Amino acid sequence: xxxxxxxxxxxxxxxxxxxxxxxxxxxxxxxxxxxxxxxxxxxxxxxxxxxxxxxxxxxxxxxxxxxxxxxxxxxxxxxxxxxxxxxxxxxxxxxxxxxxxxxxxxxxxxxxxxxxxxxxxxxxxxxxxxxxxxxxxxxxxxxxxxxxxxx
Length: 151
What we know:
Blueprint: E1 2-9, H1 13-20, H2 26-29, E2 33-40, E3 49-56, E4 59-71, E5 75-82, E6 85-95, E7 101-111, H3 114-122, H4 124-144
Antiparallel strand pairs: 1-7, 2-3, 3-4, 4-5, 5-6, 6-7
């Protein structure tokens, strides 16, 4: 399953991408994030790996992020692997004529189990909704310093 989501953030490109390129800021816009632990490579650079742990209600999830392209302020691409699925994500950032930032997020989900294949087929809107929620949370954090973190 592949889809693209876009959002305009009413802040300049460099300010937006500086906030995006910070592990410390992730807790402010990625709801449910418990921890982000560097595993290998140079943090924030091509090939770097990070273990991300999330908790949503009683459900826990662990992802391994691998950076596949880091070219801020224009692009940031990564894969996110967890049990049952791999997400290939490409993020593009552009300045608008108003001096704002357009964030284009291209996601491709590849199921690795029959169960996840069924979920992607039956509930594609749930994945799109989660992407839009993270992007809206980031917009609120970048524009208004609104954090989803309880910490």
